[in-house]
Design goal:
The chain is α+β, with helices and mostly antiparallel strands and about 270 residues long. It has helices at about 1-15, 30-45, 55-60, 110-130, 145-150, 200-205, 225-230, 235-240, 255-260, 265, and strands at about 50, 65, 70-75, 85-95, 100-105, 110, 135, 155, 165, 170-180, 210, 215, 245, 250. The longest helix is centred in the middle third of the chain and has 19 residues, at about 110-130.
Length: about 270
Amino acid sequence: MNQRKVHYAQIFNIIKPSNLEVPINADSKAQHLTEEVKKRAVGYGFDLVGIVSPADLDAVPSFWIGHRDYKAYTKKTVDYMADVKSVIILGARVWDDVFDFMIKVRDHYEYPEEWRGRLYARRILRFLQRQGYSAILEDDWLLSKKRMAQLAGFGNFGKNTLIINPSFGPWFRLRSVLTNAVLVPDKPFTEDLCGACEDCVKACPVDALTPYKLDPDKCLLGLTWAQRESPEYKELWRRHSPKLTPNTYVMCNTCQKACRHGRELRGLRPTN
């Protein structure tokens, strides 16, 4: 545990994300609690932490999610917590393929990386509850964590449909907490880190990407098991989602590996 704390502290000493700063004109109680939440989030294992106003998140128009497992419109924060005052968005860096493992369990998949994020986020939840506030951890919410991340200043919505952070690139996972604690919102990220680059779009082995849009019916991660074993996709699946054990695979991350941001921290060679 001590090694992990040192590791994250070293990262933040180098990167110093702007969203760890709290505006000096914020209400003193809200400012103090925000600083404490952010400090604890980093101590618990997160690399990025930001605060979003529920009103700003709910102002984002609802959109259709057409994934195989989710076919519905996104919802609003008040659909999950009537007295919500703040949204906490948390990012945990991915620095190894171990975080992209998917394990087949009977008729479904489990993702160990999900367990890490939930564990860390529950610590934030319990801290807020000890302070007398209500807080709930996401559980199949129809709230966009990517929009939360952009509004909290983590990065921009990239052409690979992932949030691109200036330091980590697309290599981090998101968790979120709703609370009735009043916290100080961060400023949104407004820079375009993609520019004219479309390397991720070109790298997709099944042409599932067009700039800023993913076709979930084409993406290797969205295919059914029968499709993955079909003659059309079998070799592509094995090449981009290698098998480690009879039931363990590495999720396809080809579009992420094409991104020019965050390569050094991920241990990838620089792009030309």
